[in-house]
Design goal:
Keywords: Phosphoprotein, Transcription, Transcription regulation. InterPro entries: Bact_response_regulator, CheY-like_superfamily, Sig_transdc_resp-reg_receiver. The chain has about 280 residues and is α/β, with parallel strands linked by helices. It contains ten helices and twelve strands. The protein has two domains: about 140 residues, Response regulator (Rossmann fold); about 130 residues, Rossmann fold. The strands form three sheets. Strands 4-3-5-6-7 form a five-stranded parallel sheet, sandwiched between helices. Strand 11, helix 9 and strand 12 form a beta-alpha-beta unit. Helix 1 crosses helix 5 and helix 7 packs parallel to helix 8.
Length: about 280
């Protein structure tokens, strides 16, 4: 299966057809568009639930675990958000697809640890939803390392990344990070704090770059410092990106996605070059 998303995401791998997805939406237009598009792209047959009762029945009448839910905020029979509360209480990963959006709504959604939210306010809404679904279903292929001496910061970033279905490892210092990188060559992204007691983020980045280039591993630096020059210093040390805390959830996820998308594109180009070289030799 091959997929190219609207933001540049590309996926080439095994079929996603075995994923069980519930679509809680009462609009005939959107249920038809979403169901058709997910079937075309990923061969996924979504289970449509047009009201709260149908959503409850879909869960209760099958022992097969739900991989992901796509839900409107308000459904017939659940006009005050009860459907979302129901899905969250069942620990079902959920993407919100809504036409109602305000800053307060956004804060409430993220506080409930939803996977993502997509607005119905543009012609690309269904395509954006399809990409969000594909990212969640395939993010497990990515192994991310969090490096921070603060247990609270490690826990926060780990929670955010696991919400998006990434595989996550953590290190409390630079020495531990280097050890984990040796043991786990599949780590494709490092998110590291700048200010650490043994090896700071700059030095850690330099040591990583001495053995692994940007075509093999991406590095995002983070810091709570108000020094705006840290980003320049970090990039000069070999980092790929830099963010100042506190950062917005959506921005963090976007930066992570962009770096991993770039890594995949580089690997695809390298693979294509190798294939071409083999053909030329033959």
């Amino acid at each position: 299966m091959t997929f190219l998303g609207i933001s540049g995401m590309q996926y080439s791998g095994q079929s996603l057809a075995n994923s069980r997805i519930l679509l809680a939406e009462d609009s005939n237009v959107f249920t038809s568009m979403i169901g058709t598009r997910l079937k075309e792209l990923f061969n996924i047959d979504v289970e449509i639930c047009r009201n709260f009762e149908e959503l409850q029945l879909a869960y209760d009448q099958s022992s097969e675990p739900v991989t992901l839910a796509i839900s409107n905020i308000n459904l017939p029979g659940a006009e005050n958000g009860e459907a979302l509360e129901y899905l969250i209480d069942l620990s079902i990963p959920t993407v919100i697809f809504t036409g109602t959006f305000h800053e307060a709504t956004r804060d409430k959604l993220l506080a409930k640890d939803v996977v993502d939210y997509i607005l119905k306010d543009n012609v690309f809404a269904v395509e954006m939803l399809a990409e969000s679904v594909c990212r969640f279903l395939t993010n497990h292929r990515h192994h991310v390392l969090i490096v921070d001496d603060s247990p609270t910061a490690r826990a926060l970033l780990t929670s955010r990344l696991k919400r998006y279905n990434f595989r996550v490892s953590t290190a409390e210092n630079g020495a531990k990070a280097l050890e984990l990188l040796k043991k786990n060559p599949d780590i494709g992204l490092v998110v590291t704090d700048y200010n650490m007691p043994d090896i700071d983020g700059f030095e850690l980045t330099r040591r990583i770059r001495s053995v692994r280039g940007s075509h093999e591993l991406r590095i995002i630096g983070v810091s709570s410092s108000s020094n705006r020059l840290l980003s320049a210093r970090f990039l000069k040390a070999g980092g790929n990106d830099f963010m100042l805390r506190p950062f917005i959830d959506e921005e963090f996820y976007c930066r992570v996605n962009q770096n991993l998308d770039t890594l995949i594109q580089i690997r695809s180009m390298q693979s294509a070059r190798k294939d071409a070289a083999i053909k030329n030799v033959a």
